[in-house]
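User: Could you write out the 3D structure of this protein bound to NAP? I've included everything you need below.
Assistant: Certainly. Input first, then the structure.
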Amino acid sequence: MYGEPKKVCTWIIDEVNNAYAVDKQDWRDLMYLADEKRYEKDGFRRCGDSGLLLSKLSLGLWHNFGDTSSYGNMKKMCETAFDNGITHFDLANNYGPEPGSAEINFGKILKDDFMPYRDEMIISTKAGYDMWPGPYGNWGSRKYLIASLDQSLKRMGLDYVDIFYHHRPDPETPLEETMGALAQIVRSGKALYVGLSNYPGDLMKEASAILDSYHVPFIINQNRYNIFDRTIEKNGLKETCRILKKGIICFSPLAQGLLTGRYLNGIPEDSRISRDGRFLKESSLTDEVLSKIRALNDLAGRRGEELSRMALSWLLQDELITSVIIGASKPEQIIENLKAMESSKLTDIELAEIDAIVGTEE
Ligand SMILES: NC(=O)c1ccc[n+]([C@@H]2O[C@H](COP(=O)([O-])OP(=O)(O)OC[C@H]3O[C@@H](n4cnc5c(N)ncnc54)[C@H](OP(=O)(O)O)[C@@H]3O)[C@@H](O)[C@H]2O)c1
């Protein structure tokens, strides 16, 4: 009389109010559901002395999110990142190609997948490089920064970003004007925090004092930092961040793919050098660079890991680094790069060997 118990199901309501019963697998096929275990790892660090925690790895959308890339692949990369505890997604007005298209594509991914998770995400964008014709689409004027963020918000379909950066110093606009624009952006509610990118230590200190006088939550600096590029150790940025208790987020941690096994045996067809070549050119792969990559790869091999993993853990073991922004061309690279959070610490001997290979004393 009671028969078989009915299968437990979930109901969905479509746009014209039809209700359908679906089981969990069908549901997953219809819409993205984030992995329930995404916060199980110890994956966060405090950004300077602010209240904001950032995932140790962030995902950058500089490459492979423009109009020349597959939408399905970029959506899968964002899902893979978020499912594995990466909460921070880094954009800029000009990411593409075409400039602006990475924000448009990310806006679509947000709409398709992530709107229920918006409050679990940190989304950043920037302005500072050439974006539109004429004198108001570049550098650091108040006119450019405020108009650019309005455009970025429209492209992404957002009311606010979590972090808005000035992308690079402007030698001709008064620092007070650029910092005043950042202050107004925060007051208008269009960004929660501000950051500076590509500033050296002394200029960042000056900017920070102006932002403090406006009570603006300036919490983070975004600069290139990797085993090959030690600029922030030399230009005062790293030391000033330590003193002022500001966060550091590193970009191009794998030197755009050079600090991986990618180019050990030639230039693969699906690599950044072959497919893009705007910023990483074949001419970067000199014999000298290749011999350094080989020596670093040998060291990583002795540690029992991939070079990419060693290069990321070199950054992650530095406590001054809040987060490391990885780029990726496929979801599998994100999975591989997450393993760096579990790497054993590089010993002093290994660190010295890395320095000797890349020749840091010059
Ligand atoms: N503020 C600034 O001025 C600025 C400047 C540059 C970048 N950024 C930010 O930093 C982010 C990251 O920069 P980036 O893309 O240069 O970072 P990256 O991590 O140094 O390079 C990413 C590239 O390395 C290769 N790769 C990644 N993981 C790999 C793995 N496990 N094995 C083999 N190859 C791997 C992929 O290249 P293939 O395509 O060859 O597979 C990938 O596209 C950008 O998206 C952007 O958000 C900011």
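The first strand starts at residue 10 and ends at 13.
User: Perfect, thank you.
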